[in-house]
Amino acid sequence: MAIFLTYRPQPPLSDFINLFWLYQGYYPPHELERVLPDGSIELIINLEKDLIRVYDQQNYERFQSFRGSLISGPHSVFAVVDTACQASTIGVHFKPGGAFPFLKIPANELCNEHVSLDTLWGTKAAELREQLLEAESPIAKFQILEQSLLKTITSPSSHHPAVVFALKHFQACPHQWKMADVTEQIGISSRRFIQVFKEEVGLTPKQFCRIQRFQNVLRVIKGREQVDWTDMALSCGYYDQAHFIRDFRSFSGLSPTAYHSQLVKHHNHVPFG
Questions:
Q1: CA-closest candidate to residue 202, choices 119, 126, 142, 113
Q2: Looking at the structure, do residues 108 and 177 belong to the same domain, yes or no?
Q3: Same domain, yes or no, for 140 and 178?
Q4: What is the DSSP letter of 126?
Q5: Is the alpha carbon torsion for 152, 119, 131, 201 positive or negative?
Q6: Paired residues of 93 in beta bridges
Q7: Which residues contact 238 (CB under 8 A, 6 or more apart)?
Q8: Measuring CA to CA, how many Å separate 246 from each of 5, 178, 199, 228?
Q9: Is residue 271 assigned to a domain?
Q10: Which of its termini does the chain have fewer beta carbons within 10 Å around, N or C?
Q11: What's the pTM value of the predicted model, to 2 decimals?
Q12: Is the distance from CB of 34 to CB of 272 less than 8 angstroms?
C-alpha cells in the first residue's frame, strides 16, 4: 500500500522550506513522468536504491545517473524522471529562494540542472542517507532531515530586501507586477535586482513570474471538468490564447487540453508518454 506523508519543519527552517515529503511503496503504472517547473528547488533522497535517474526530454533512452541523493535546481522547463526511483523516497520542497542558505554556490548555477548532493555537501550527503535508512518510523526520518538541515544552514540566512519584496508580490500577482515596479519601490537598480534575485532564487525575475503565472493556471484548472481556455488565458494575464498555449507548452511540453485530459493527481507530476 502506497503512503504519502508530509511534515512542516519548525522555525527557522519554516522560513525557507515549504515541507518535507515521504513516499513509501509508490509504484505507479507509468515508468517515467514529467516534473513541471514551479520556481523552487527540491532535495531528493532515494531510500530504496542508491540511484536516481533523470532522462533526456527529447530522447528518453538517454539519461543521467546520480547517487541516491540529489538537488533539483530551479527549472524553466520540465524534467523527466524515473518513477522506479520513487518507490521509497524522501525529499525537501524549498520555498522559492529558500534553498540558498543551504548551498555553497549561487542558486542560478543550478538552473535547469540536477546535481548530486555529495557534490554540494561532500560526505555529509552519504551520512545523511545512511541515517535515514536506519530510522524506523517516518517521523524519525523527518526529524533526522530537520536536524541535518539545521546544522547545514549558512550565514547570512536572510534574503536581500528586494528579493523578499519581489517574491511576495510575484507569487501573489505574477502578471500584474513588473521588474520596474519592484526596483522603484525598493530603490535598487534593475541590474542589481536581477543579480541578487538570480543568486537567491535561481531564475531571472521574468522567468519566475512566467512560471508563477503557469502554476496559477494549474491550480485553477485542477478538478474542473470543463475549462474555457480563452477565458482562462485572459483572466490569468496572458495577451491572448496563442500566448497562453505557447507558454504552457514551453513549461510542460504539452498543450493545455492534453495536460487537462490526463487528470493528474499531483498537478506538477504528469505521466510521460
A1: 113
A2: no
A3: no
A4: H
A5: positive
A6: 19, 42
A7: 175, 213, 244, 247
A8: 35, 20, 27, 17
A9: no
A10: N
A11: 0.93
A12: yes
Q: Which grid cell is 154? A: 549558512
Name the residue among 6, 174, 202 with its Cα closest to residue 91. Answer: 6
The answer to whether residues 79 and 192 belong to one domain is no
Residue 273 has pLDDT above 80, yes or no: no
Q: Which of 104, 120, 152 is the last residue of a domain?
A: 152
pLDDT at 83: 86
The beta strands (E) that lie in the chain are given as 3-7, 17-24, 32-35, 42-46, 52-55, 63-66, 69-72, 79-82, 88-94, 114-116, 269-271
Number of domains in the chain: 2
Residue 212, C-beta contacts closer than 8 angstroms, at least 6 positions apart:
39, 170, 171, 174
Return d(Cα 140, Cα 223) in angstroms, integer: 34
Is the distance from CB of 109 to CB of 52 less than 8 angstroms?
no
- Cα(81)–Cα(32) distance, integer angstroms: 6
Region 193-215: mean pLDDT is: 95
